[in-house]
Amino acid sequence: MNSQMTNKRFQIVDTNQVKPVDCPCGKTRRAFTDDPDQTASLHVVDISVEAKTHYHRQLTEIYYILEGQGKMELDGELHDVGPGSAILIKPGCRHRAVGEMRIINIPVPAFDPEDEWFD
Question: In this predicted structure, what is the pLDDT of residue 6?
C-alpha cells in the first residue's frame, strides 16, 4: 500500500504490502506512483519467461537484478545478467528481460502506463 502524500517531503512504502499487478515483464509491485511530483517510482518485479519487448518514449529505467540469472535484450542484443547487475535503459531502447528473475526497476520520471509501447 502506498502511503498517503501530505506536506511531508518523504514517503515510506512497504512493497510487501503492495498488491502485484501484471506488466510486460511479469508481476510488479509499484511504489511512489501517487507522488504528485512524479519524480520517480520504484517497482519490485518478478520477471516471467514471457516478458514482452517494449519501450518508453519518455521514461528512463534502471533495472537492478536481485535474484535469478538470465539475459537482458536491449535493442536486439542479448546480455547476461545476474544478482548485482544494473542496467540503464534510455527512452526508445527496446527491451525485455529473459529468464526468471526478481528485479528492482526505477523509472524516471515516475512510471506512466501511457508511455509503454510495443512494436
Answer: 58
